[in-house]
Design brief:
Blueprint lengths: L23 H9 L2 H21 L5 E4 L2 E4 H6 L1
Antiparallel strand pairs: 1-2
């Protein structure tokens, strides 16, 4: 692995708004119109991700953003 849970995040600059992902939360909130609908969606997606994570081998390697971590470190980052 090239990173661990402690070294995964590397925030260098405040988002500028130029990247479409910078406005993701704002766009999601606007799309759902009602805050409880967005909360329901994020809770549902988060629960599904949590269930999938519970099935993952913690020693398996995961590659993301040109970094390699163990699944255990990725899930705790």
């Amino acid at each position: 692995p090239t990173r661990s849970a402690a070294t995964y995040w590397n925030v260098v600059e405040t988002p500028t708004g130029d990247d479409p992902l910078d406005a993701l939360t704002v766009r999601l909130a606007a799309a759902y119109q009602e805050p409880w609908l967005l909360k329901f969606h994020l809770d549902d997606v988060g629960s599904a991700a949590g269930r999938a994570a519970g099935l993952a081998d913690p020693a398996a390697r995961v590659e993301t953003q040109d970094q390699v971590l163990t699944a255990g470190d990725y899930l705790s980052a």
